[in-house]
Amino acid sequence: MRILITGGAGFIGSNLAQRLLTRGHTITIYDNLSRPGSAHNLSWLRQVAATLENPFVLIEGELQDAERLMLTARDTDAIIHLAGQVAVTHSVRNPRDDFMSNALGTFNVLEAARLAPTNPIVIYASTNKVYGGMEHLAVTEEPTRYTYRDLPMGIDESQPLDFHSPYGCSKGVGDQYTRDYHRIYGLRTVVFRQSCCYGPRQFGVEDQGWVAHFVIAAQMGRKITIYGDGKQVRDLLYIDDLLDAYELALERIDIAAGQIYNIGGGAAHALSIWVEFEPLLSRLAGHRIVPNQYGDWRPGDQPVFISDIGKAGRELGWLPKVDPVTGIERLWSWVHAHRSLFEGH
């Protein structure tokens, strides 16, 4: 297939590009190269492509550039839309930039697909933040975590949307536009509402990518701030499992077209962000990792989010395989092997 990956130089995009290149697909990356680590990820991808003798095309551009997107998308069989503004905190500081990147940018991608003569598949990377704070759900506080009182398997796709931050709004706009472009125009679209994805090639920072941020900070001796009490729970999804979901959606597009899927680690792969995560981190570091400070809860921060991933299992045959202990060990090893990338930053 001829596959366009927006944000293909980022964490998820570069790993996905590598996977698809090894499968023999023809890959075009559309990226503005603004994310930390983009240059390194591209260098790695070029080495991979050279080994496979399967080069990729890089188009440097913005999501707001509708004309360039249309030109890039016109000869593709599938578009995997990963690019955009990724941090809730940045969206609060600069909601206009967040809107332009996520809402308008996704609209431009969908229009490029609608006008393309090839009728490409479009898979959109949405987020669990479209569900908002879910304050109406009963939550129980336990010694190390918060839990849903009545939802042991987590939140399924029928949960009402309640965006609750500029980031949630802008991603939610893309989420709903993507769904509606199937209903109105017949475009073969799929929405993935993704949870906390992590793994190698993730240059996590405090604003986004918390698993990698904590791993990098622990290895580099950097400050760690915990917002809230550290008992907030998230379901963790290792990058290889996420890539499996993208491949399955492409393979089973006759089933997946027009659908929305929660794509996360599920209840089996959930951890509280510090109280349960810290012992794993301290064991890998060989000494106790202690936060430098605690801060107030962030706007829209959910005390617990766990994806009910049953629909993706039933319809796509997908189930995450890498448990958090194994995945975090792999990420720790990758950061350790690439310490030079993080020095001085």
Task: Set down the secondary structure blueprint.
Layout: E1 2-6, H1 11-22, E2 26-31, H2 38-52, E3 57-60, H3 66-73, E4 78-81, H4 88-93, H5 95-115, E5 121-127, E6 139-141, E7 146-148, H6 166-185, E8 189-194, E9 196-198, H7 210-220, E10 225-227, E11 233-238, H8 239-251, H9 253-256, E12 259-263, E13 270-272, H10 277-285, E14 293-295, E15 304-305, H11 310-316, H12 324-337
Parallel strand pairs: 1-2, 1-4, 2-3, 4-5, 5-8, 8-12, 9-11, 10-14, 11-15
Antiparallel strand pairs: 6-7, 11-13
Helix pairs in contact: 1-2, 1-8, 3-5, 5-6, 7-12
Description:
By secondary structure, this protein is α/β, with parallel strands linked by helices. It has a single domain (2-341), classed as Rossmann fold. The protein is built from 12 helices and 15 strands. The chain has helices spanning 11-22, 38-52, 66-73, 88-93, 95-115, 166-185, 210-220, 239-251, 253-256, 277-285, 310-316, 324-337; strands at residues 2-6, 26-31, 57-60, 78-81, 121-127, 139-141, 146-148, 189-194, 196-198, 225-227, 233-238, 259-263, 270-272, 293-295, 304-305. Strands 3-2-1-4-5-8-12 form a 7-stranded parallel β-sheet, sandwiched between helices. The radius of gyration is 19 Å and the shape is globular.
